[in-house]
Amino acid sequence: MSNKKTMNQRLLSSVIAIFIAMMFSFSAQAASCKGKSQSSCSADKNCSWVSAYKRKDGVKVSGHCRVKAGNTSSKKSSKSTKKQSSADTKSKQKKSTKDVDKKSKDKKAKKDKKAKDKKAKKDKKSKDKKSTKN
């Protein structure tokens, strides 16, 4: 029994160590591109140069070197993923709201039809009774 616990503890500590090592390697790779000039950035296969641009809010962003998109999960790419996932969630919420609205409309239409049919039957019965009395 204690042998299994020891093996589980070793496995857990190995997984944690690998995870920590991966985290440091990603940040080290991102740091390797930071501050490079355009020529040295272009020469490095892990980096890409981002030209200067102006954001919608008017802030000027100077050109800079960054890690290529597929190389790491840098902070910028994780932010864009969060934005994308929140946009996906919002679109799913809109769809589900539309589905609920459609279902409630269908339910109401079904209820109205039942009420109409019931009234029509009642009117027909009263008509039949009047015709049999005459």
Tell me the number of strands: 4
Provide the spatial order of strands within the biggest beta sheet: 1-4
State Rg: 33 Å
Q: What distance lies between the first and last C-alpha atoms, to the nearest angstrom?
A: 95 Å
Strand coverage percent? 5-15%
Largest beta-sheet details: 2 strands, antiparallel
- Name the shape in a single word: elongated
What is the averaged pLDDT score? 76
Q: Topology as H/E string?
A: HHEEEEH
Low-pLDDT sequence parts? 73-78
Number of helices: 3
Question: What is the structural class?
Answer: mainly alpha
Helix amount, in percent? over 70%
Overview of this protein structure:
- A two-stranded antiparallel ribbon has the order 1-4. The chain has a two-stranded antiparallel sheet with strand order 2-3.
- The N and C termini lie far apart (95 Å).
- Strand 2 and strand 3 form a beta hairpin.
- About 4% of the residues have low confidence.
- The protein has 3 helices and 4 strands.
- The protein has a domain of 73 residues.
- The relative contact order is 0.06.
- The longest helix has 59 residues.
- It has 134 residues and is mostly helical.
SSE diagram, text form:
Blueprint lengths: L1 H32 L4 H6 L3 E4 L2 E2 L5 E2 L2 E4 L7 H59 L1
